[in-house]
Write a structure and sequence with these properties.
The chain is mainly alpha-helical and 47 residues long. It is elongated, with a radius of gyration of 19 Å.
Amino acid sequence: MLAVWVEHGHDEQRIRALVKGKLCIGPDEVTALEHLPSAKPRSRGVK
C-alpha cells in the first residue's frame, strides 16, 4: 500500500509518520481493547 501512495506522489516519510502517529495502536492495545465490555445502548425510557 505504501508503494501505491508513493507512486501517486505522496512523501514516504510523511506516510510512515502518519501510520505511527498518536492514533496508531499495536497488537498489545488491540488485545486489551478486546477484553473491555461492549457498550450497551442507552435506554430512552423514563426512569
